[in-house]
Specification:
Elements (H helix, E strand, L loop, with lengths): L1 E4 H6 L1 H9 L4 E5 L2 E6 L12 H10 L10 H13 L1
Parallel strand pairs: 1-2
Antiparallel strand pairs: 2-3
Length: about 80
């Protein structure tokens, strides 16, 4: 497990992140005491958002029965109607 001061971490953050992603334990110390551990997020958190993924989510949306317009437009129309 690698221990690094805050200053070392500031100067080498990208490298420390890469090492943590590779499975190495990375600990940041302050005043000689460990205060933070860098470790990968839960599985799946590193997946990239792609245009295909966005299209897939947009195409999978289902509107409730009777809803024919976007909620933001509906609210804007209601606001505008109230201001008349």
């Amino acid at each position: 497990m690698g221990k690094h001061t805050v200053l070392e971490a500031e100067n080498n953050l990208n490298e420390l992140i890469d090492r943590a992603l590779a499975g190495e334990g990375v600990v940041i110390t302050r005043g000689g005491a460990p205060v933070v551990e860098i470790k990968p997020c839960a599985q799946g958190a590193n997946k990239r958002i792609t245009p295909e993924g966005i299209r897939r989510v947009a195409n999978s949306r289902q509107w409730p029965a009777g809803i024919r317009e976007h909620g933001g437009k509906l609210i804007s129309d209601m606001r505008d109607e109230a201001e008349k």
